[in-house]
## 1
Amino acid sequence: MAAIELRDVVKRFGPITAVDGLDLDVPEGICLGLLGPNGAGKSTTMRLLTGQALPDAGELRALGHELPGDAKAARAEMGVVPQLDNLDVDVTVEDNLAVFARLYRVPDVRAAVDRALDLARLRERRRDAVDELSGGMRRRLLLARGLVHEPKLILLDEPTVGLDPQIRTQLWTLIDELRSRGTTILMSTHYIEEAERLADEVAVMANGRIISRGRPAALIAEHAGRETAEVYAPPERLVEARAIAEADGLRVRPAGPAIAIVGSERAGNGSVPDDAVRRAASLEDVFVLLTGEEAE
Amino acid sequence: MSAGGVRLRRLEPAAIGGVMSREVANFRTYWRGTTFSSVLEPIVYLLAFGLGLSATLVDEVAGVPYVQYVGTGMVATAVIFSSALPAMFGTFVKHRFQNTYDAILAAPVDVEELVSAEMLWIGTRASIYGCVPLLVTIGFGLDPAWGMLLTPLFCFATALGFAGFGVAMAATVAKIDQFNYVTALFVTPLFLVSGAFFPIDELPQGVQIVAQLNPLHQLVELVRGGAFGFEPVDLIRFAGLACFAFLMWRVAVRRMAARLID
């Protein structure tokens, strides 16, 4: 059984269609990365799954529960880690966890809190107010709060957005631990590296629908080939290099101050400048080619 | 439909208790300041209005020493200021600035349970703080009476209604400064024509009719009934407060659902 099944789901906000005929299956036990630029509809999809947004059309099921009618029962079995920190900052670490253990009807609140503290590696700080924690600790606490009832399914909405690289790596380690335990994870992100490192499968979302899906390596092979050549040069030379590559049937994308010629292993003689830097094709190439957005 | 084997229904005590436990955890961090002002305010008011006015202008109102008249009336001011205002500002801040409700509604809690818990918590708190002016007035010479034991109940019913009103307003306004309109148009007039500081039967006929629809006036009359003797009409007054609480609860749930669920 799929943990999540969405069929032709539509969600509109006035004239804006945030989710536009979305079809998505998430099998049990995998980590699916929902990768897309800002405004792609990722967060709305998450809210639809928790019943905090009501669909205008389509069918939704989570853990066998029909949504939004049975959303409360579905939420009891899923954990949500939001994009924004909404911890109670004046309250102690353990009280933050205890409140949510009660909301999730956990029979042994104390044991659940201890387990969550261990997961977040915050046992020593249990009696400190959240205000006194570092940014990384708060983020770990937020994750532990969403897991306090040992959910079958976890929704991670941009779990590391705005965090510095060191804290992001700490979070990735925690998420990786969950993944290795077989917990189903749906993780929205617009960080390519995050999706590449953590997700078993990646679904690229743009304009409210999935435009491509697969294992990262398969997506790269399908859309970007084996190799990408990056050309660093003055703007006028980049224009010239782009024109030559495109004339040879190659796809070219912007890459900051450079251009990236994707699938350069197929390039004919002279289609790629000799001083181009050749590297293995990446998920970033796929993302930019499919969405037209610069990757982060 | 279960959470760890527990059947999920409408208005579950576990969900309401869970939300209230969050309020209790937060309250433990700021109760000293709130309690200090709740105790000090009636003392200052009683000194200023009660002793000050009674020494210079008013000796008695309706056969009751003015300090006791004001002291019993101030229960209503304590209730509205510890229910409507915290409900308005607290709800707005938790929703817009702290995103607290997003976190709670991601758990197996629905909007009806969330609003009910918020109202019950504010009602409970206000029913305790509402009794403080009465206790202070006893210190100023009011004789204790058995009927006063019902004051927390009267305060609770009234505070529930005003908590619902505050939650509904928080779900309606676009910006926090718009609460100035709510306070000026509703809270202050209700407080002034409650009969807390002067009897309303000297006011123009139209104002007297409006005052009868004012839940705070009914609370003032019930508290004075508890202190100086109940009348049969007090049962109707209490029923009116219960209806007010129920009506505001439904309005608050409806407004918050529209605000919280996209």
## 2
Amino acid sequence: MRRQRKPCPITEAGIRYVDYKDDRLLARFITDYGKILPSRLSGVDARHQRQLSKAVKKARYLALLPYVKGQTG
Amino acid sequence: MAKLKIRRQPARRYEAVYIFDSALEDVTIAEKLEKFHALLGATDEITIEHWGRRALAYKIGRHENGYYAIAHFTIEPKVLPEFERAMKLDGAVIRYLITLYEHELGAPALSDEELEARRRVTDDDDDDEE
């Protein structure tokens, strides 16, 4: 028995290209610690997951997203 | 050994994001941007989008805030090293990122019908995965 695959949330939103400057969008696809959420949990399709992972890494470099979240000190 | 021919590289469209020291005044930042962009010899007009001051997601050195500015320009790749050098030497630039402006690349957006058709196809294929 296989569970039905979730529709890709990025495709659903009509986004062709994931922009690294859109930190609000990217923040939906990272965990509480700031890791990139696996596509098996988020349902993002493979093409968008590839774009997403690059975008998150660029956004981290530009301090739009943290490398590690919930860190003290 | 075969000699490599140096080909003239075509101009490409780039996007640059700069993070300036937020303690600087807006006028100073605009001046600096102008100075950097003068090095580029851009073939078209340079568009600048100012995000302004915002908090950094983590501290960079002693900085907790930064002034974000985004520029788009079409230039020949060979001018980039000098451009980057100028920014590295300038203490006012906390960080910068130059990327190809990729929104322009790739096929045009799919229409709703195409999207629907594609979704049907992927649903059928689903059993192959995992």
## 3
Amino acid sequence: MVSLEQIGVMARAANGNADAIFDWVASSDPRRDHTLRRGGDVKLRIGHITDIHVPSEVQLLERLKDFVNNDSITDFAYKISAIPNALMHTYAGARDLYTTILRKTLLGMRRAGVDHLAITGDLAHCGLETEFLEMQAILRVTGWWDSGQMSVVPGNHDRFNLYERFAREPMEQFFDVPSTRNPRFRELPGGVVLYEIESNADRIDDRHFMEDLFPNTVGRIYPEELDFFEAQRLRWAGYRVITLMHHHLSDDWYDIGAETILGSLMGPVDGAQSLMDVTKLVDPNSVFLHGHKHDVMVPDYTLGAHPVSCPGGFAESLSVNFIDVTHNDEIVITQGKVRV
Amino acid sequence: MTTIIPNGLSEDSEIQDVSEAVAQFYERLPEDFRARWDAVQDHDPATLAQRVERDFDDHPEERREILCAYLAQRLGYSWLFNRRQTLLERPLWDLLEPEHYTQLGAQEIELLFLIATSSRKVRPALEPRAALSAIVLWRNGDEATHARATEILKTRPLPSDEDWLFDLVRVLAKRAVDLRVESRRRLLDLLVLQHKAGFNSLVGLAIGLYFARRYGSLFGSTKRANLVVSCEKAAADYRPRMQPWLQLAADATVAGRLTMPWLEPLMNAAIRHETDDARRERYRAYHQGRPYRVSAARVAEIYAAPLRLVRQGDAHMGAAMLYDIDTMWDSNPGRAKDLLELLIAETGQSKGDRGARLTRVIEAVEVVDPLMERLIALYVVTFDLRLTAISLTRRLRDRVEWSKFGLTDADVDLYLMSADYNQPLKGQRVLYAGVVLEHVDKDAAALVHYFRTKRHTANSVTGVIQNFATPNEWLATHVGHSPFVDRMFHQTMQAFERFSRERSHADKVLSMLQAAEEAKSFDEVPDLPARSVLRVAQHARHKALLSAALAGAVAGGIAPATAGASAVLDAPVVMALTAEVCAATCWYFGFDPADDPQLPVLILAIALSGATPPSTEPVDVHRQLHTFMVRKSLILAALGQGAYRAVLGPTLASGIGVLRERTGRVISKGRLVRMLRRDAEGDWSRRLAETANLYALPVVEGIAGATLNVALMYDICEAAEAVLIDRFLARKYPDWKRTW
């Protein structure tokens, strides 16, 4: 029997035609060929995937029925909001298929010559341990786990447990992630540094008023995160800065939905401008990778002086972005879609 | 510096204070569009240009807004009748028309240049308003202006937003307008300019949109399918004046190595109609790799005619298609695989659609011919996730010469292990709730955990029926609840349970597990993954639900015609079904209920009371079921007699009580009763009730009977699964602490 680790080693050595796995969709550089093969001028390639929402097999419908019994009005609203969340997943009843699609995607990233994998939150769908374990296994099979080539930041779905208001086993039990007010840097080859932050509002000390009714969907940047960056700006002088966060920075790239109008949910993160300003201390054109909104952002989108990448909810779009840092320190974002 | 205050007083001030005041004035402008609109009214264009260039150099968005607001006023737009967005965009679109452009003076043209150069350096493409300004200047300006605008348009591509580009194409390609500008300043020339600057993706998209405008459906506009169909029509409807467009499409495709699907028909047409040999060869060299991204359905559409010929036995066509497949191997393996599957499906002799034919051919294949060998290799290359692809590769992997296709054994291993959900997880262990489990059992463990912690009471529908208040004045209530009937019910249930317990379901369960390729003998069941067993057990659940629904629907449907008597007819069926489900489900998990006669009763107790039942004594549990059955039958019987108020009254009252409690008694009881009575006693409501009795009642009764039975059976199946998975895990993992 082959262990997961052995499969992971095989996966790391995987090569082949990335265009056989992905369809090229668009690129921020209109002069590039329509291919996802790694170009010769690329010194670092980051694969960006977000909002994976691995579902579980805990018979959601049955558990949700239990929710609506014997509750207060606020709990009832909270749980009612969880029902569409649980049922509207594209692969709610097909976890095996979804898992294999994810394996294919992450192996495809190997074929595409990705040096570092960035997952910007919402790995789990309902914040359950089983979902984290499932995602862990996917990453092991594809050789990303324990490779030192992967960054994960938490999303709102990773922080609320659909069945228990506060998760019995937090995400930290399964993934090495930054937490609210405790960001971190990760140096990558080629003069690139990742600034990894948790953008969820603090659920305990800074709870949004709407969170009594709906699961946590509010994002906030705290002064501690800005101070942390500022304190280390000299150390990273001259680096290209790529910030990894879950919540989005702007709202001009998708259609505003009712959830934003009612109760300011699903809006851009609070403190976006301060965050962009502070990263300018090191890199005036720092790059932001995020998720949260499941809409697919065009790869040539920029916000002020910053390129931004959001490939959208994976279950719906099956999209991934490749962030190439060239030998000239330019950033090129190319979007691909998994062929299923 | 000292600032002089008019009243003679003075105070010290630094010069920075003054500049800060100026800066604040300008910084306030972007926040308040109305103030900005008023402020720019008094400026002459030269001063405005100077100020904007100086103060908004690093604020391109504000810079564009201020300048657009000025141009809007210049073109006569009114603040009163337009939205802000209109005022900021419409003037630039208007200026594409030469007659509007000629209204501008030299200074105002400079303002347009300021907008045209306002895109931030980090932007890969021009900002839409900057792009529009550049196009206005390029299209309508004098020679010097045209040359300056050309430089802007060479540095960056137009925005790739499909809706924006479609609008631009629509405006610029209007024939009446296009003829009014010089021949070298038309849409085609703009796209040639962008192509020469290397922005081929943009050109490919714009050409697709151009043909969509001419040949596409009115409502399809920018949708990919509309672009493909439009370009197909355009290619078929070739006219000499299209030649430059086809050439541009082909040049951009080859130079940018474009893969947009709508370019394929245009490339076909360009190759057909090209007179220059060298150029045609260049097009052909790229086109033969068929790199265009198309779906499997589209591949079938494209190759429909050749496939028909292959079906009719045309060997030459088959060989030609195989050549195509080999050519696409590297440039578009996904399409090569789709085409090869179609080709193989056509070689099959069986009937049915292509998918079914392909499956039959694949399942029957024993000898690996060159076609099949290629197909298996392509499955590995494209990482095909379909079960047929995986099982074919697994079955015939030893007969394929992988090195011929540049593949190694490791590639095949990786494909087979990763594409199959279970394969890599076999033997893998995880820690869940303090117990080391097999990875595949984690979901089953979670299911037990959440059932145990969340199912505090009976489920919703079953709970409502159990809490239903039966009217004491009804004779049926007294009969139904009499000790005699209760004792009879208990004895009958015991008989059903005994009968079900003594029947072995081992063979049936084994045959289902064998069909699912999960186990070869019944003894293997305890070692199987819990999720596999659970999936097979779900068959029993579906069967039970269907039977319960049928019985309930029949009993309920004929209740109005039998004076409500039929409402009790399904009771024996439901009782038998309950006993059967409780006992039979045990077999699916490898338990013989004869070894533990209490197990079916325990399952029933949990189904009726939640995870912690007050009693698991058979007599108590049967009494609870009996109460449920009596109340359910009374509801159906009463509905059949039209006694809505008698049935719904007590239930509604308790529901309203809960509602009032939760809404803080906003609705007073008296007011609510008055409202209900007023509506119920009206003439229209009596007529409605009569009509409902005649036509709708049997249907409503049938649905209600089926729903109530299904709810009960669903709860029993669910409880059975939770209890039995718990025991299954306890048997498999000694560390797992059994709950029930």
